[in-house]
Amino acid sequence: MSRVVVLGGAGYVGQHVCAAFAAHGHEVVVVGRRPPAGPMPHRTLLLDLAETPPAALARELDALRPWVVVNAVGSIWGRSEAEMWSATATPTLRLLDALAHMTTAPRLVHLGSVLEFGSVPAGTRVSAAVPARPDTAYGRGKLAATEAVLRAAADGHLAASVLRIANVSGPGTPRISLLGRVAEQLLAAADAGREAVVELTRMSARRDYVDVRDVADAVVAAASAPVLPEPVGIGRGEAVPVRTLVDLLVTASGIPGRVVELPPAGPASRAEWLCVDPAAARTFLGWEPRRPLAESVRDGWLAVARAHRAAATEPIDSKG
Fold first, then answer.
1. Which strand (E) or helix (H) includes residue 111?
2. What pLDDT is recorded for position 1?
3. Does residue 138 have an active-site annotation?
4. I want to staple 50 with a disulfide (CB 3.0 to 4.6 A). Which of 90, 115, 157, 269 is the partner?
């Protein structure tokens, strides 16, 4: 059994990464800025990567003697534009400094994002051959982190692989995400005994959605495979209309409802198309997505519904 440290392991993707490594018999240690929202079956270390001096972080990691460090920090959810750099780039830069100070030499698996590419022409399948030109604060921060990891690996300072993750669906979908917001509107309507009227800004974009559990499987594969020679995209290789995802969720819920698309309040996003070329993941990792999109959305709904029922039946005293 080897020890795996998952930075950001209490987050949406991170929790599934932890579960996947544990299922393969590894000991998992979660590192995060704040305690997990609920019970976790793994040891937890509270550390803010953006605020911890590299030497101190190196000592903490050395004490754990990990086989692999997974960098799953840098969530897009609930951040302002001004906060994106400190949330997406700074933690990785601190981590790289810490790894250079360590006496042990763990493998690093860094989770980047397809949003590092920015806007691309419709029909493009993004890969390492496509120039990354991010047009959002999140994309710029994630690209800076990815490039720093690639430079450190090229200089021989560490063994590192980079995965660029597509849009993610499945159990644990954050409430602030598109599917999370739709689920909240459906549940509110069901609680009130009325038809759900789901109001969303007009959805013309097409995105590559992949199940979060398939993403976790890709991370496990990257930890065991030879170091990747280039950033590898993790997605289904299908650009699906975002409206299709919403319709799948409404259907999975079984709640009577309709979707109303509203005009955008401001300028429309230029990023209307995003699709991953999955060839590198097949070649270097032997990885392919296993879960159909409808199954992923359904399982995401079931998880939200279970959490909603549990909260509704929780004793008042335990809610504080």
1. strand 107-113
2. 67
3. yes
4. 90
